[in-house]
Amino acid sequence: MSEKRNTWEGVIGLELHAQLRTRTKQFCRCEVRFTNAPEEANKFVCPICLGHPGVLPVLNRASVELSLRLASVAGSSISRRNIFARKNYFYPDLPKGFQISQYEVPLAEGGFLPYFFTSEPGGEAEVREARFVRMHLEEDTGKNYHLPDGTSIVDFNRCGVPLLEIVTQPDFHSADEAVAYLEEMRLTMIYLGVSDANMELGQMRCEPNVSVRPVGANELRPKTEIKNLNSFATLRKAVHYEIKRQIAVWESGGEVLPQTMRWDDAATGFDGRRGAAVAMRTKETADDYRYFDEPDLPPLVITDEMIERASGFADKTAFNVRARLIEKDGLSEYDAKNIATIPDNLRWYDALLPEIGDAKLTANWILGEISRWRAERGDKFLAEFKTAAQVILALKERRITNPQAKEIFGKVAVTGENPEQLITELANASDAATSDLDAILEEVIKENPAPAADYKKGKKAAVMALVGQVMKKTRGAANAQEAKKLLEEMLDE
């Protein structure tokens, strides 16, 4: 859905916060551990991340190296000499009373990330680019628990976890465009090993800056920022709502105020519906944060060696993977997206394709039976690349039918049996079962009088119920089209 109404269009820039995939926190040796229960609060903390007087931070080198991977892939200009700053604001989940971040000299500036966007359902995907303003390193804050008894707990386990903030230009005009970019960025960070980017765990959070303007204009009107959205569904709702609200304000002769907002599913919006962006405060400026250089950290110097190591990840983006699957292997955009979206799917695809030699068949099995059984069995899924390839090749070579292939693969997934032995056993059983197909057809008609009678009354589709019974009796060995033809001949007599 396009965020346009009459002569207005949305203008959206995104601030993305991603927890970096490090073992320890940004400025201390505390373990990075996800916790989401009050009883686990404040178990992974120390005097440094709690902001005790006299402690000194030490920068986590791994956070820098991971961030450089993304900056290198985006073609950003990397700052060789970085300065950290203190960003001052007073929230209960920020024990130092300031956040160590980067301001005047970020880690990287500029660059872009290409992404696929489909403007209409079922339409052809087009390639667009999200341009970056900057990427900078900082530390995460803690979080608050508000308990049913009215008490609150401040949990500092998350405080000090390394964050990379990625700020885009206002290049998006709809929530769908913004989500398409964020999906691409999430996959890219996972592929590069930069972040696990699990939005449900708060490892990736987004803050859209939203304004509107007349279509065709280049002006940037006052914007609002919606804080800490941790799902694509919520982002869609929030951006849809805020664009509609701002259009209504301008069309009524009012003026949009630059505000910091939050999304509240229970609040009543300007349109009388449930779900609204609620104002928190007037939007801050840089002056409000009173930035100054962090006196306890020396400048961060980026070496040629660090940049060279980061550049080795240039071809490992999700976009490049999907482009390869589409352009080289001939997969549809839909199949390519579903293969690339889950790294384990891509691992199976890259292992099976050389053996199968048919990209579409390989993709169908990975997105079908293999994904189904992996989800159902979990750690007890016993099929391997080799055994899966044996089943799919037997199907490709017409030694077994599709129903038989599914039956055999199910047994391999559950028991880890040798598929070649199962194929041989099934072939022998099928030969015996289909040796007298006419007798089987007569038996099926006799045992299923209702669909047989329906067919004779003119309901021709009823024959498919009988075909299903034939396939069941022959364990999928019979040719379904041949069985259908013979059944119709018998019933027409």
Structure in words:
Helix content is 40%, strand content 21%. The mean pLDDT is 90. The two termini are 56 Å apart. It is elongated and about 90 Å long. The strands form four sheets. Strands 1, 2, 3, 7, 8, 9, 12, 13, 14, 15 and 16 form an eleven-stranded mixed sheet that branches. The chain has three domains: 303 residues, no CATH class; 92 residues, no CATH class; 56 residues, Orthogonal Bundle (Arc Repressor Mutant, subunit A). α2 packs antiparallel against α3 and α7 packs parallel to α9. It has 16 helices and 18 strands. With 493 residues, the chain is an alpha+beta fold.
Q: Determine Rg (CA atoms, Å).
A: 29 Å
Give the strand content.
Answer: 15-25%
Number of domains: 3
In terms of per-residue confidence, which ranges show pLDDT below 50 for 5 or more consecutive residues?
A: none
Specify the overall morphology.
Answer: elongated
For the termini, the CA-CA separation is 56 Å
Helix content: 40-55%
Number of helices: 16
Largest sheet geometry: 11 strands, mixed
Q: Descriptors for this entry?
A:
single chain; 493 residues; alpha+beta; Arc Repressor Mutant, subunit A; three-stranded antiparallel sheet; 16 helices; 18 strands; 40% helix; elongated
Short account of what is shown:
With 493 residues, the protein is an alpha+beta fold.
Secondary structure topology:
Elements: E1 4-5, E2 8-19, H1 61-73, E3 77-78, E4 81-82, E5 84-88, E6 98-102, E7 108-109, E8 112-117, E9 126-139, E10 143-146, E11 152-155, E12 162-168, H2 175-192, E13 204-214, E14 224-226, H3 232-251, E15 259-268, E16 274-282, H4 286-289, E17 292-293, E18 300-301, H5 304-311, H6 318-327, H7 333-341, H8 343-356, H9 359-377, H10 385-396, H11 402-415, H12 419-433, H13 437-447, H14 449-456, H15 463-473, H16 480-492
Parallel strand pairs: 14-15
Antiparallel strand pairs: 1-2, 2-12, 2-13, 3-7, 4-18, 5-6, 5-17, 7-9, 8-9, 9-12, 10-11, 13-14, 15-16
Helix pairs in contact: 1-5, 2-3, 6-7, 7-8, 7-9, 8-9, 8-10, 9-11, 10-11, 11-12, 13-15, 13-16, 15-16
